[in-house]
Amino acid sequence: MELLLGLRRVAAYDNNPVLKHLHLLFLFCVTFTSALALDPERIVVVANSKDSDSVKIAEHYLKARSIPKENLFLVECSKGETISWDDFVSTIFNPLRRELFKANWIEGSISEQKDADGRLNVASLGNRMDFLVVCRIPLRISNDKARLDRDKTDQLQAQFKVNQGAVDAELSLLAVPATPTIGFVPNPLFGQAKPSSLALQQVVKVARLDGPSMEDAMALVDRAIEAEEKGLRGRAYIDLGGPHQKGDEWIESAGKRLEALDYPSTWNRAPAAIGYKERFDAPAFYFGWWKADIQGPVKERNFEFPPGALGWHLHSFSATSIRMMHKRWTGPLVARGLTATVGNVYEPYLELTHRPQGFVEALVNGMSAGDAAYYALPVLSWMAIFVGDPLYQPFKVSLESQLESLDVTDDLSQYVVIREMNRLRLQEGKNLAFAYGKKEFHSAPGLALGFELAKLSSEDGDNAEAVKFLSMAAVVPRYSPDQQGLAFNVAEFLWGINEHELAFKIMKALSISGLPESAIRDYYPKGVQWAKSLRQRREAKEWSAELTAIKERDAAKKKK
Question: Which InterPro entries match (predicted)?
């Protein structure tokens, strides 16, 4: 992903009346309307009649969110992810534009005459949809050289002389006539907490329910609803170290905003992605970059995000496919339970991608996930998509309400307690935070909460009490992928305070937890060292052998 600055320097804006109109809207509109809550009755859903999974996802969404059945529109299009411009216009854009005008979702008049790009001509008075939700229809439009050769684009910078892009990004302009197919259009909703009514009428906001499987796409809705009922619980993970300072600044700003909400957080500032040595338990928020394919603990197929989790991995091609389980980022993250995310189908250039800090800011200010995505996106008719239920409100349940209805049988409840401890520590001091956490620990013990209390005890020089909070770790038979980094951190902490036997027991539990090779590389050097120190010869021998075998396989791969 290359850094791009100075969006307004693209000369084509001044020579295209539609672009100029939208740009002026973005800069100068002074008549504002308050951001209203999205209404399920104003959600329009689109499915592919040739794909039974697409229709089932749409029907599931209608039922889950009480969306009227007449709000469902069917198109007959390819079941693939990539589509040509001709097929996009003839099987998706024109049929949808025709039906939306017919049903008065877009007001104005429509003609069977077509523009130079084959799209039905319209005279639009604006749209009245809160969102257009597409369910497993094609994802991206391939570059069309014939169209490029036909259109004169000398005013555009070279990197923008493409007409490839996201299907969803083109559908955002359904209500605007004669928009260019080459380059991008400024988003008049970008950074607007109170968009003008005209801007809202012009832009068709688009969300996508899709994923590697039909079940993954449906879970986007179910997990959003669960989080709205129970509250968004977990931790924040901020993974910096990308190729441009600007991207790091954006992600860092988002992380600081989440910390201001008292979410416990882990920061990784190294160029490498978050690895197995770092904890990655209960990631309610994840913002990172800059790796081509999914990496680290989240790569494991049985890794699971907590319900309602949000975020993304910023990469130029994070969403070239959304139906792959182990390649790129958007699809794999959805498959592992991330509830709302974004991605890029082709190279977008950094300045034209979603801004993570803007996304978090909008959520904090009460926007839904869908509206926050448009608040954070500078341009339309380009490469970005939003995946998730646009109605989702992650902060619908406040911290106070979560504390009042704390379910001690739910393991995620300990993260609500930790968040309250963070708030108390900042406002009332460490002692009060510790007393509160200790009281809650007795009714709802958990390893994450125990670790927080153990660290506080150790800070005060009471290692004996610290051990009491972590004694449960010795009886855990094995650890799930999201808990393995936490367990390793706990083991290192215990070894550091000379609780060697307990630390070793945790390492043994980790060793039978089905560790991937990357985790073995990270954990077993310590494990072998500890085993030798405690004269545990069998484990020392077994773990050394596994490390040696992995090194030999690595060497063989390099020779190939």
Answer: CHP03790
In contact, 156 and 185? CB cutoff 8 Å: no
User: Which band of pLDDT confidence, cut at 50, 70 and 90, is reported for residue 527?
Assistant: very high
> Starting from the edge strand earliest in sequence, which strands make up the sheet with 82-83, in order?
82-83, 140-141, 165-166
Those residues whose C-beta lies under 8 Å from the C-beta of residue 392, and which sit 6 or more positions away, are: 224, 227, 228, 308, 339, 340, 368, 369, 370
What is the spatial distance between Cα 462 and Cα 464, in angstroms, rounded to a whole number? 5
- Compute the distance between CA of residue 279 and CA of residue 266 in angstroms, rounded to an integer: 8
User: Which secondary structure element, helix H or strand E, spans residue 288, and what is its range?
Assistant: strand 283-288
Residue 57 carries which side chain, given as an amino acid letter? Answer: I
Can you tell me the distance from the alpha carbon of 385 to that of 171, in angstroms, rounded to the nearest whole number? 11
Percentages of the chain per state (helix, strand, coil), in multiples of 5: 50, 15, 40
Amino acid at 167: V
Phi, psi values for residue 234, rounded to 5° = 145, -155
Name the token pair of 546. 């596994």
Per-residue pLDDT reduced to its tens digit, 221-230: 999 999 999 9
Q: In the beta sheet, which residues pair with residue 384?
A: 344
Q: How many residues does the chain have?
A: 560
pLDDT digits 0-9 by tens, 431-445: 999 999 999 998 878
CB of 493 closer than 8 Å to CB of 448:
no
Angstrom distance (rounded) from CA 193 to CA 216: 31
| pTM for the model | 0.92
For residues 347 and 317, give the distance between their C-alpha atoms in angstroms, rounded to a whole number.
6
In the numeric block, the tokens 């305070």 are attached to: 497
Scanning the structure block, which residue is given the tokens 């072998």? 528
Token pair 């429509």 in the structure block, residue: 110
Alpha-carbon dihedral angle through residues 504, 505, 506, 509, given to the nearest 10 degrees: 120
Relative to beta strand 82-83, strand 140-141 is: parallel
DSSP 3-state of 28:
helix
Query: What confidence tens digit (pLDDT) does each residue in 343-398 have?
Result: 999 999 999 999 999 999 999 999 999 999 999 999 999 999 999 999 999 999 99
Cβ distance 306 to 233 under 8 Å?
yes
d(CA 191, CA 376): 6
Q: What gap in Å lies between CA 548 and CA 128, rounded to an integer?
A: 63
- What are residue 308's phi and psi, to 5 degrees? 90, 0
**Under 8 Å between Cβ of 228 and 260:** no
* CA distances (Å), origin 477, targets 74, 149, 353, 506, 508: 50, 64, 44, 9, 9
Place of tokens 């004169």: 152
SS3 for 52-84 is HHHHHHHHHHHHHCCCCHHHEEEECCCCCCEEC
Which residue reads 């992380």 in tokens?
255
Q: Which amino acid is at 450?
A: G
And the tokens for 314? Answer: 């910023």
pLDDT digits (tens, 9 = 90+) for 480-502: 999 999 999 999 999 999 999 99
